[in-house]
Amino acid sequence: MKKRYLDRFSIEGKVVIITGGGGLIGMKHAEAVLEGDGIPVLLDISEEAMERVKKSLTEAYGEEPVMECIKTDITDRAALEEVRDELLKKYGHIDVLINNAANNPKVEGGSKNLGAIRFHNFPKEMWEQDIAVGLTGAFLCAQVFGEVMEKQSSGIVLNISSDYGLIAPDQRIYRKEGVPEEEQTVKPVSYSVVKHALIGLTKYLAVYWADKGIRVNTLCPASLENGQNEEFKEKISKLIPLGRMSRPDEYVCTILYMISGAATYMTGATVVLDGGRTIW
Ligand SMILES: NC(=O)c1ccc[n+]([C@@H]2O[C@H](COP(=O)([O-])OP(=O)(O)OC[C@H]3O[C@@H](n4cnc5c(N)ncnc54)[C@H](O)[C@@H]3O)[C@@H](O)[C@H]2O)c1
Asked: To test the ligand 1 pocket, which listed residue (17, 18, 24) has its Cβ within 8 A of the most ligand atoms?
């Protein structure tokens, strides 16, 4: 039977920038791009992390994929402009930006003593650093790569928020028995602020670029299972109607949908993939 709709998921030849592409979810975004025959461009401050992703993708696909790994600090506008020029010289277009990089402190499992990051003594430097990567980085990337999209009259921006962009962290799940109050681990305030703010950035830009052929959306993934201890997994699973944490591969198809021609009427949207956690 002739397929009339499936082709719309193809992003063949599209250049897709993934900030923080060397991280856990960054690799899955790259897989989504490769599945749609696009070209993932990883931007990360860690060359080793990007190399690890490239190696895993080569193993997964049985050959080295067509992709770019560019060591970049996304808080540095001049560095982003260099990346833009390099990509335009090589490909002539930039089609998608996935704003994925963030400082994402893995407090889950409560294995580390991160008492120092509780709200009342949260260091201003850490606040500024987290905002710089998660929010200012997204703002700068949208400015620099969005300008190219404006000129092309086409483009897609996908901001990666979190269930913590919609609800407050339930700090009880990070608590450890027998640990004094002051030393109890918490998810830091900056994480909530950055993730909520990205939804605002999405809505602002979706309207700003509505008549320029650029769509802007947010994806809110929830906690991924990634080696946390059993006690933590049990506690968090009780907060999730589906009764479990997510696997990294459970975002791939949604990402591909959101950055493809299958979602041409979606802009300013917040897509939530959280096993139902935020509906309770
Ligand atoms: N892992 C989860 O459970 C989860 C859940 C919900 C949302 N998210 C969101 O998904 C995104 C990715 O999360 P992750 O778990 O893959 O994080 P991660 O820490 O594994 O990856 C983040 C990557 O960003 C890079 N990075 C940091 N500062 C940078 C900078 N200045 N310039 C360029 N790159 C920089 C890091 O080197 C790292 O490779 C984040 O926005 C996070 O908030 C993650």
From this structure: 24
Q: How many Å apart are CA 72 and CA 62, to the nearest integer?
A: 27
Q: How far apart are CA 119 and CA 91, in angstroms?
A: 46
CA distance 135 to 130: 8
pTM: 0.97
Tell me the sheet residues that pair with 159.
Answer: 99, 218
Nearest CA to ligand 1 atom 28: 133
Q: Which residues pair with 273 in a beta bridge?
A: 221
Instruction: For the chain, list the domains and their CATH numbers.
Output: 11-272 (3.40.50.720)
Instruction: Give distance in angstroms: CA of 149 to centre of ligand 1.
Output: 24
- Taking CA atoms only, the protein residue closest to ligand 1 atom 34 is 44
User: Residues 10-60: pLDDT tens digits?
Assistant: 999 999 999 999 999 999 999 999 999 999 999 999 999 999 999 999 999
